From TrEMBL:
<keyword id="KW-0687">Ribonucleoprotein</keyword>
<dbReference type="InterPro" id="IPR020069">
    <property type="entry name" value="Ribosomal_bL9_C"/>
</dbReference>
<comment type="function">
    <text>Binds to the 23S rRNA.</text>
</comment>
<dbReference type="GO" id="GO:0005840">
    <property type="term" value="C:ribosome"/>
</dbReference>
<keyword id="KW-0689">Ribosomal protein</keyword>
<dbReference type="InterPro" id="IPR020594">
    <property type="entry name" value="Ribosomal_bL9_bac/chp"/>
</dbReference>
<dbReference type="InterPro" id="IPR000244">
    <property type="entry name" value="Ribosomal_bL9"/>
</dbReference>
<keyword id="KW-0694">RNA-binding</keyword>
<dbReference type="GO" id="GO:0019843">
    <property type="term" value="F:rRNA binding"/>
</dbReference>
<keyword id="KW-0175">Coiled coil</keyword>
<dbReference type="Pfam" id="PF01281">
    <property type="entry name" value="Ribosomal_L9_N"/>
</dbReference>
<comment type="similarity">
    <text>Belongs to the bacterial ribosomal protein bL9 family.</text>
</comment>
<dbReference type="GO" id="GO:0006412">
    <property type="term" value="P:translation"/>
</dbReference>
<protein>
    <recommendedName>
        <fullName>Large ribosomal subunit protein bL9</fullName>
    </recommendedName>
</protein>
<dbReference type="InterPro" id="IPR009027">
    <property type="entry name" value="Ribosomal_bL9/RNase_H1_N"/>
</dbReference>
<feature type="domain" description="Ribosomal protein L9">
    <location>
        <begin position="13"/>
        <end position="40"/>
    </location>
</feature>
<dbReference type="GO" id="GO:0003735">
    <property type="term" value="F:structural constituent of ribosome"/>
</dbReference>
Length: 150
């Protein structure tokens, strides 16, 4: 019996593929768990349309995130913070502070996408990675100044 897979199934195939399986396996396992549909012309067409719309949506998102990466790469964000002698900060600069500094520049990113190994605790320049989508990452420069400096 030919079926159209709705989900990736280990040792069988990927979602959207048409596979030949035993009819008992299809009726007793794949169909009840909604893992596959019978490979009728209508079902095949429906799956192809869904797959095409998902691909188009993914491509649009990739293009949008690539444009955002180009906007962010090399961007300099300056943050002022209270610091003591030797450039040690009172407190620290974290992802929330960087998020707010970007927001002031009218740049929207997900706060969770800002990658800091550890909070910034010293004055100076730091490279910060922002994970946008899948393997698209942007790198910005964060410069931390003392509030006392002009």
């Amino acid at each position: 019996m030919k079926v159209v897979l709705l989900e990736d199934i280990e040792n069988l195939g990927l979602a959207g593929e048409i596979k030949e399986v035993k009819s008992g396996y299809a009726r007793n396992f794949l169909f009840p768990k909604k893992l596959a549909l019978a490979a009728t012309k209508e079902n095949v067409k429906l799956i192809e349309e869904k797959t095409n719309s998902i691909v188009k949506r993914t491509q649009k998102r990739l293009q949008a995130e690539q444009a955002k990466k180009e906007q962010l790469d090399g961007l300099i964000v300056e943050i002022k913070a209270k610091a003591g002698e030797g450039g040690k900060l009172f407190g620290s600069i974290g992802a929330q502070d960087i998020y707010e500094a970007l927001k002031e520049k009218q740049i929207e990113v997900d706060k969770k996408s800002i990658r800091l190994d550890e909070p910034i605790k010293q004055l100076g320049e730091y490279e910060v990675t922002i994970a946008l989508y899948r393997d698209i990452k942007a790198t910005i420069k964060v410069i931390v100044h003392s509030l006392n400096e002009n």
